Amino acid sequence: MNDQSKNDPVVAIAGVTGAVGAQFIATLEKRGFPVAKLKALASARSAGKTLDFRGQTIVVEELTERSFDSVDIALFSAGSGVSRQFSPIAVKAGAVVIDNSSAFRMDPNVPLVIPEINAGRIREHRGIIAVPNCSAITALVPLWPIHRQNRIKRLILSTYQAASGAGAAAMEELLQSTRASLAGESYQPKVLPHPYAFNVFNHDTKVDSETGYNEEETKVIRESRKILEDERIAIGITCVRVPVLRAHSQAITFECEKPISEAQVRAILSEAPGVKIVDDRENNYFPMPRDASGQDDVLVGRIRRDLSDPSGHSISMFVAADQLLKGAALNAIQIAELLPERIMA
């Protein structure tokens, strides 16, 4: 890394004014990540705005080809197009890029990392490390420790995805459309393709005319296989958008190669990093996006035998996780904390 006093890195955030960008700032502060200097980068229309970081006022700069001079770590969350354009420039300038977009996830030369699962892949980076899709992270953090002990051969997912996955503008649209609906007023969607208040609809990515799967579903399938390093795993998935601000939920059913019991799953997950069991049958209290919001852990509950599989190889459960934290910013900062350059500093 570039030579800095106390070996603290210069950190740049590309897309700092977005929902994930704001969470990058908050997560760096909360985790006490060492930063010699913070560069706040965004589009030209946001240049000149200010934000607070550790008692200092930081002026947002326009993202340009010169933005990464002397930068050690570049956190990207400005869309795949921006990542494809500027990540190679940042790497050439000497920075390690941790990218939250889909631009490089399936590149065989780019590690796709969830630290609780495959932190060792970080050392293989060639300048860019990809953060997986938020729904893949939410599912795989609790599934990996089970898969490691008893291979999961089939996985069925139904996602309930929050507005935050579509950015700050979608979050604001949910708020405004809900207010309008409660007031009996009309509201024309501007960000999402359908009315959002009190509604559920297919995930707002392009649907493949041949397969019928949307792009979000395809991402989760492909990324899960890459992260688990298992191309044989069968995955079926349905992704929908729900009127929740910032935490994704999922109904998960998985089939293992060997029989597995509820007790075994609970025992495994009770010791799993990044997982919190919320499974109170007596009080009908299980993972909810309301509770997951603001938490680092993936909440897991509704752990029960899949009654459609009499062989005893299948378990169903329900999970929830903060899309802006573990689904994006937190996962990226965890990667930054484990960079070989920082470990050796």
Structural summary, described in words:
By secondary structure, the chain is α/β, with parallel strands linked by helices. 30% of the residues lie in helices and 24% in strands. It is built from ten helices and 15 strands. The protein has helices at 19-30, 80-92, 115-118, 134-149, 168-182, 215-228, 262-270, 289-292, 325-337, 340-343; strands at 10-14, 37-42, 50-53, 56-59, 61-62, 73-76, 96-99, 128-130, 152-161, 201-202, 234-241, 247-256, 275-277, 298-305, 314-322. The strands form three sheets. A seven-stranded mixed beta sheet has the order 10-11-9-12-15-14-13. A six-stranded parallel beta sheet has the order 5-2-1-6-7-8, sandwiched between helices. Strand 6 (73-76), helix 2 and strand 7 form a beta-alpha-beta unit. Helix 1 crosses helix 9 and helix 4 packs parallel to helix 6. The longest helix is centred in the middle third of the chain and has 16 residues, at 134-149. It starts with 9 loop residues before the first strand and ends with a helix. The mean pLDDT is 96.
H-E string: EHEEEEEHEHEHEHEHEEHEHEEHH
Strand line-up of the largest beta sheet = 10-11-9-12-15-14-13
Total number of strands: 15
Q: How large is the count of helical segments?
A: 10
Mean pLDDT: 96
Q: Main sheet, how many strands, which sense, barrel? A: 7 strands, mixed
Q: What gap, in angstroms, lies between the N and C termini? A: 8 Å
Rg: 20 Å
Shape: globular
Give the low-pLDDT segments: none
**What is the share of helical residues?**
25-40%
Helix/strand structural class = alpha/beta
Strand content: 15-25%
